[in-house]
Amino acid sequence: xxxxxxxxxxxxxxxxxxxxxxxxxxxxxxxxxxxxxxxxxxxxxxxxxxxxxxxxxxxxxxxxxxxxxxxxxxxxxxxxxxxxxxxxxxxxxxxxxxxxxxxxxxxxxxxx
Length: 112
Prior knowledge:
This protein is mainly alpha-helical. Helices cover 73% and strands 5% of the residues. It is built from 3 helices and 2 strands, in the order ββααα. The chain has helices spanning 24-39, 42-89, 94-111; strands at residues 11-13, 20-22. It has a two-stranded antiparallel ribbon with strand order 1-2. α2 packs antiparallel against α3 (94-111). The longest helix has 48 residues, at 42-89. It is rod-shaped and about 100 Å long.
């Protein structure tokens, strides 16, 4: 009797006993042979290499997007700080804008 895709002499069942008999060495060799044929063929290696390269490329793209977002956020914070400084220069009481400056400074510290 054959179980799965393995040859008859790897796993057998006798009529007199409902137990399976396994030739472990042969079974290991068969399993390793299947693994080698499926995963070490040039096509499989090329496929895995292509998948890895695609993931690396995607990761690089994700990194660049995050970096642009980070830089944009820093520029926005710097612009807001300049706006508040200009407000102070034009006569706004510094105590009035201090909470906003503190909030921007905290945001800047969080993303640096």
